[in-house]
Design goal:
outer membrane lipoprotein receptor (LolB), chain A, 2 domains, alpha+beta, 9 helices, Glutaredoxin
């Protein structure tokens, strides 16, 4: 018994030392960051999205960041430098600089257009833990996050590796972010992995040529001014809202045909005249689409085949490498309605600008409900509509 207690005490002592060492590494890194007003670095950023077999993004660029805690968009100014497309945020506007076209488009992030950078996958290159400098110490304080510390030699250089394992929030699981610090406690590499419905996403950040306090805001503005002198500058124009909406209620549903995946047979919308039809435009890597599946399953069970049919219209997963993964996807999500592979012409005919997009058609093929995106309120509205028209 005494030996067991001693062993436990020894183990706790080791864990305590590791936590303190991880804490000291992070404290040293964050102290360096907090004392600096700017940070410049080259980065090789890679991302493999869930069902992709290869990297979906493989990006080399230079980033220049100037911290400003009062800024509400990015907490500072930034310039992402690329051979063909640069992105500059001066804390008032975002500028997308197209060197090939010699054109600059100005966006207004404080009026809702921050997506010009935030909504772009390349925004991952900004994740150098500089503009929001206290996130790592926040991970250490979070009791739901497991922290481990190891040492390793990579390319003849010794690294201290701090891994944070986040609690599962199904269907998100096995989420881990790992930080590689060199002997000077400089952050040189980050990796991130997460599992979602038996598919993995993986990200890597490789930093080099880091410099603190080497740039000033005026230098970035001068660089922009020199480009404005020779490039065309225009403000981004929001598209006509009517172009972004699904087809209107009361209009005729465009005809289409496609391949019924489960039956391996062709089908057409005309086959279902005389029935109510629910159309769901979706693809399997779309998280909001997946959230809608239980509701569509319930609809398919609630009504007979003679009353209503649910069709999952998919323009993306018909290619072989995606199609072979569908059996697992169907089993995990218990999909009980047809998956129909369609072409892009059908998505254009139905004005699909986001996923999922829903339509409900009456027995004559007229649209009686249309909705872009998914929320729990959608369930109630469709339920109410169908209960009213199918009495």
């Amino acid at each position: 018994m005494r030996s067991t207690i001693c062993a436990l005490c020894f183990l706790l002592a080791i864990l305590s030392c590791q936590k303190k060492t991880a804490s000291s590494i992070i404290t040293d890194f964050e102290n360096t960051v907090s004392k600096s007003t700017s940070f410049e670095y080259d980065i090789h950023y890679k991302m493999k999205y869930f069902s992709s077999d290869d990297d979906t993004l493989n990006y080399y660029t230079n980033c220049r960041l100037i911290r400003d805690a009062q800024d509400t968009i990015f907490r500072g100014a930034l310039w992402i430098d690329n051979d063909s497309i640069d992105r500059y945020y001066d804390r008032e506007h975002i500028y997308i600089i197209d060197h090939r076209e010699k054109a600059i488009t100005r966006f207004f992030p404080h009026e809702g257009q921050e997506w010009a950078i935030k909504g772009n996958t390349v925004s991952g290159v900004l994740d150098a833990y500089f503009l929001r400098e206290n996130r790592l110490s926040g991970y250490l304080k979070d009791s739901t996050i497991t922290t481990t510390l190891t040492d390793s030699v990579i390319d003849n250089e010794k690294y201290r590796i701090i891994a944070f394992r986040f609690a599962d929030e199904l269907p998100i699981e096995k989420q881990q972010k790992t930080f590689y610090f060199n002997k000077r406690n400089a952050l040189k590499r980050i990796t991130y992995s997460v599992k979602f419905q038996n598919e993995w996403q993986y990200n890597e950040w490789h930093f080099s040529n880091e410099q603190y306090d080497a740039i000033e805001a005026q230098a970035l503005q001068s660089e922009l001014d020199s480009l404005i002198a020779i490039y065309a500058l225009e403000d981004y124009e929001e598209p006509d809202e009517t172009e972004l909406q699904p087809l209107a209620v009361g209009s005729d549903a465009p005809p289409f045909s496609g391949l019924h995946y489960q039956a391996n047979d062709s089908i057409a919308l005309a086959n279902y005249r005389g029935k109510y039809v629910v159309l769901d435009f979706w693809y399997k890597d779309c998280f909001p689409c997946i959230k809608a599946i239980p509701f569509l399953n319930r609809l398919n069970e609630q009504f007979s085949d003679e009353e209503l049919v649910v069709l999952g219209l998919n323009p993306i997963d018909g290619v072989e490498k995606n199609r072979k993964k569908l059996p697992d996807f169907i089993e995990i999500n218990k999909m009980n309605y047809p998956i129909v592979f369609i072409d892009r012409n059908t998505t254009q005919d139905y004005n699909v600008r986001a996923y999922p997009t829903f339509y409900v058609l009456d027995k004559q093929g007229k649209i009686i409900y249309s909705k872009m995106g998914y929320g729990e309120d959608s369930d109630a509205k469709v339920d109410s509509l169908l209960n009213a028209v199918m009495k």
